[in-house]
Design goal:
There is one protein chain. About 40% of the residues lie in helices and about 25% in strands. It has 5 helices and 8 strands, in the order ββαββαβαβαββα. It has helices at about 30-40, 60-80, 95-110, 130-140, 170-190; strands at about 15-20, 25-30, 45-50, 55-60, 85-90, 115-120, 145-155, 160-165. The strands form 2 sheets. Strands 2-1-4-3 form a 4-stranded mixed beta sheet. The protein has a 4-stranded mixed beta sheet with strand order 5-6-8-7, covered by helices on one side.
């Protein structure tokens, strides 16, 4: 069972008892431990069943379960799954396409994702692996402020592969994005409404009566 045994479910003759504040009470009969738990309006919880004798603690089991559930929920909330994005390049890529691909890599790394960069060789290009190696080195140097080389360039069949890892964690990137979003909202709310200009009406004198 995933949950520890508590109170009457503890079927051993004696336990090593721990008080509610962590103090060591000593080895006592389980009947006496249950009596102390009832007097203190607490539960007797078996925390180390494999010990000889088992260790039991006086605690509020309902509160303990609630706090454990909250910690688990917070851990799941902060857990970030690692995502690997992939960018494919040709060894003789032109400067415009390279700039576009590099922009994608920078965006992925800035968001806290890893990037798998693949150089695809075709035909005679396979006899010039140094072209792909130099291209991957150039890319790693161009994005050095955002990422580092986690897996150095290596040949993989007709391709050459390198993996870049972000310099900051994805949780940090998300926190930064939320902070910027909040700042933008605050700035928009604080901005005064634009004044609406009304056209000036030129005053004219009425003609004098004759």
């Amino acid at each position: 069972m995933s949950e520890p045994r508590i109170n009457d479910r503890i079927r051993v003759p004696e336990v090593r008892l721990v008080g509610p504040n962590g103090e060591q009470v000593g080895i006592v009969r389980v009947e006496d431990a249950l009596r102390l738990a009832a007097e203190a309006d607490l539960d007797l919880v078996e925390v180390a069943p494999m010990a000889k004798p088992p260790v039991a603690k006086l605690m509020d089991f309902g509160k303990y379960k609630y706090e454990a559930a909250m910690k688990a929920r917070e851990a799941r909330k902060n857990q970030v799954n690692t995502v690997i994005k992939e960018i494919k390049l040709r060894p003789k890529i032109d400067s415009h396409d390279y700039g576009t691909k590099k922009g994608h890599v920078e965006r992925f790394l800035g968001a806290g994702d890893k990037v798998k960069v693949t150089i695809m060789f075709r035909g005679r290009e396979q006899s010039r692996p140094e072209l792909g190696f130099r291209l991957l080195q150039r890319l790693a140097e161009d994005v050095v402020e955002l990422g580092t080389v986690e897996s150095a360039p290596k040949q993989d069949g007709r391709n050459m592969v390198m993996v870049l890892a972000p310099t900051r964690k994805k949780s940090e990137a998300r926190a930064e994005a939320r902070r910027k979003k909040d700042e933008q909202k605050a700035a928009s709310a604080a901005a005064p409404a634009e004044a609406v200009e009304t056209p000036e009406v030129e005053a004219t004198e009425a003609p004098a009566e004759s």
